Amino acid sequence: MTDTTTQSPEQSPAQTAGLSEYEQIWAIPPGWRALSAVSHRALGQRFIVTGLIFFLIAGFMALLIRTQLIVPNNTFMDAETYNQVFTMHGTLMMFLFAIPILEGFAVYLLPLMLGARDLVFPRLGTFGYWCYLFGGIIVMSSFIFDAAPDGGWFMYTPLSTKEYTPGLSADFWLIGITFAEIASVTAAVEIIAAILCTRAPGMSLTKLPIFAWYMLVTAFMIAVGFPPLIIGSILLELERVVGLPFFDPLLGGDPLLWQHLFWLFGHPEVYIIFLPAAGMVATMLPTFVGKPLFGYGFAVAAVVTMGFISFGLWAHHMFATGLPTISLSLFSAASTAVTIPTGVQIFCFIFTLALARPRLTVPMLFILGFLFIFVMGGLTGVMLAAVPFNWQAHDSYFVVAHLHYVLIGGMVFPLIGAFYYWTPHFTGRMMSERLGKWAFWLMFSGFHITFFLMHLTGLRGMPRRVATYPEGIGWDRLNMLSTIGSYILAAGVLVFVWDFVRHRKTGPIAKRNPWGAATLEWLYPPIAPGHNFHAIPRISSREPLWDHPHLLENQAHEVEGILRGAPHGQRETVGCHPVTGEPIQIVRLPGPTWIPMWSALFIAVAAIAMLASAYVIAAAAMVATLICFAIWAWEPAQTGQTHDTGGEGILPVNIATKLGHTHIATIGTLLVIGALFASIVFAVLYLWNVYPDFTVTAGLADPLFAGAAAVLALVLALAAWGANRVGGSTVLDLIALVAAGATMAALYFAVLPIDPQASALGATLWVQAGFVAVNLFVIAYWSLFMAARKIAGQVAPGQTIPELNRASFANWTAVMAIVTAVILCAPQLELFA
Amino acid sequence: MTTKTDDTDLLAILRDIARPALIWAAHFIFVYAAISAACADRALFGFGALHVAVLIVTVLAVIGAGYSIFRSGTDDLRRSARWSGIISVAAIMFSAAPLILLDSCG
């Protein structure tokens, strides 16, 4: 379907010559082959629908929880089932609903807002989606095997260790969720590259839609915030499977290390959930007020600083764990400081509201609901940032109330508003204003009845996570009312779901730009074709549809722009300078393919095989994954071609410079790898600092091999740098391959004298060396692949994008290897001192 | 409706937006690490040294983060840079406050 084939008057057929080839090139395959589509439109809708399904499952679990608590001494569920239900409720909501569905909206909307024809790495995004789906299925399948996780969505140690959770339940959680997190991390890299590299001509960062700023900061936060949990999960799984004592105090481990790693992820996670939703509000609000967002500059500053400061709050979840008072004060202060950028954003929204009388549409109602609820949640957050109050309210229902005010107010209400606002994009029809108002008022009133009363329940001393409670101690009536409120809230959600389902058939056809919005995603009639822009227009305003009404006066496909149609017979979009937005290249994009799905499927097989302790199958599946990756990347290089863009002059295809999209993505990937490495170094330093007696218990690393590893890493970096400088060399590829292998061997012999079973520090040093070895293996595989491509004649002179990216990757890996060598030698220095 | 910004100046403004927040991050890591070094079992140095070290680093951080507050310019991203500086300086002071108010690890 295209913009030329719908029923509304604005979408009348256009028979312009040349369009059919363009539409054919961008078409989503019909029937079951639609699953091979990699278009951001298909991908975004998959994320949204899958996330919505997980939301409904998790919401049903919430109702089970509330039903259990409706009366004292209830036997609706036994304690074990209750533990499973509340664990899965939190897990699904946080990992499988909130972030994926917001990423789905971002994946769908960003190219449309930025003036791009697709996301910059469609196959990577698709791979991430399948990882998310398969990871979610693995986690959910734990119910079938009667092994549903029951240790809370935070999986605290020592409760989650093998000793106290002997079955597979924690393994399902650790493997499934880590697998699903691949989606978040890949999406983050893709969003960073897409926002920085594929904007319409002229769209400098000053003219960037505010939603893109929010998503850019969110993507960076995901890149830095998720790695601590990934490392924590790997450590915990290693402790459970191999018996390495990371969290065992008898061997110099520490259960608090898990909490640090978890909350280093867990607190920024709240902001990672909040920021995209706030970005949606910042986009929708001006539409209904009819004025641009008040204080764009303030909002950008607030988003950027919040992105940083939110990483300094993690230990406020650990106020009751016995940290020194001065540490508590530090985190209390940081928790209070984050209210400054939050407040700046909220005031931007309030002042925007004050600019004109807003239209009270359904999305606007949800925006107002967001403001009201989120501000209340923020205020109780400030209360909980105060250590003495936190100690009183710790692990009580007051905290449950607070977090739901923040998350439902800060994310779910904007999300439902966003559904009403952007659904015409998915279906070409409008959802019902009448049903939407019913949904809003049911949700709003049900929410407050449920959760406002929980503040009181908590202040009356009711602890969280208890399956039942005795009668007559002041909690009965409050719990009864909270449960009734939850049913009302659920009724509101059901009305929304009903409206979402029914409008596909009976909703009125959406006209072009139905809300009178300013942003570029409304340039085309809101239907779901396979393509975005027949020609990519030059942008000179942050509110292009308001400032340049002529964009809406013509048929969308007739709008002036560059790269009209498919002049080169391939999928392509404009690549821009990351700062100025001026075109610097033509980015070639791939079409439908099954390879990302197969890659993810083999990783899923590996994950399931690991759960079943079938390690040979797991290894075979990983080899199959590597083969899939090689097939994925085995395509003709296109660097060196140049083409006329028809308006912006002649541009090169897929440039091999540091401003190119693949290099920006490589830097994003290195950010993730750096955060992973930093998390391990944090663990090493933490254990070294907290348990000094264990420093040499497990034995000392071999300093000669550690030094050799450092030297060989430098050779690797030099070979990769040289290959980039000379523009590609099979010999240098092979030198890089050998150097990577030799560095791995040297690291192995360096840590060999350390017994990883004897102390937590020793085990963590093994993990650190192992992590660097994995990166070295990536370089070795990459170098082998590049050499094979050259030998097979797949690469022409000057096609050096892989060399450029590998050089950056090798440099960073060399730095990690050298840091590891120094840390391995540190205990020797300590003994010497 | 969009304020005109000279694109050639954009990179400098972006640096001014990011720098204060990065300095806050470096300062926070330093304060956290210093507290850990002084207050954990290893006790690498005393509380007095902690005070002095944090004080010096805080002064430097405030200067570095506050630098962009006084840059002129009225466009939106310049305003962002100024507010990034203001928010970051406030957050740096918040991080240092416990060291000023408390006289032991507790």
Task: Describe the overall structure.
The model of chain A is unreliable at 1-18 (pLDDT under 50). In chain A, α7 (255-289) runs parallel beside α10 and α20 runs parallel beside α24 (801-832). Chain A is mostly helical and 833 residues long. In chain A, a hairpin with a 6-residue loop joins β1 (572-576) and β2 (583-588). Chain A contains 24 helices and four strands. Among the domains of chain A are: 396-510, no CATH class; 595-632, no CATH class; 675-832, Four Helix Bundle (Hemerythrin (Met), subunit A) (Up-down Bundle). In chain A, 65% of the residues lie in helices and 2% in strands. Chain A has helices spanning 19-26, 40-68, 79-114, 122-141, 169-197, 210-242, 255-289, 296-309, 325-337, 339-355, 362-385, 387-393, 397-427, 433-459, 476-506, 544-547, 550-553, 595-611, 615-633, 661-690, 703-726, 730-751, 760-791, 801-832, and strands at 572-576, 583-588, 642-644, 650-652. Chain A has a two-stranded antiparallel sheet. A two-stranded antiparallel sheet of chain A has the order 3-4. Chain A is globular, with a radius of gyration of 27 Å. With 106 residues, chain B is an all-alpha fold. Chain B has one domain (21-100). Chain B is elongated, with a radius of gyration of 17 Å. At the A-B interface, α8, α9, α10 and α20 of A face α1 and α3 of B.
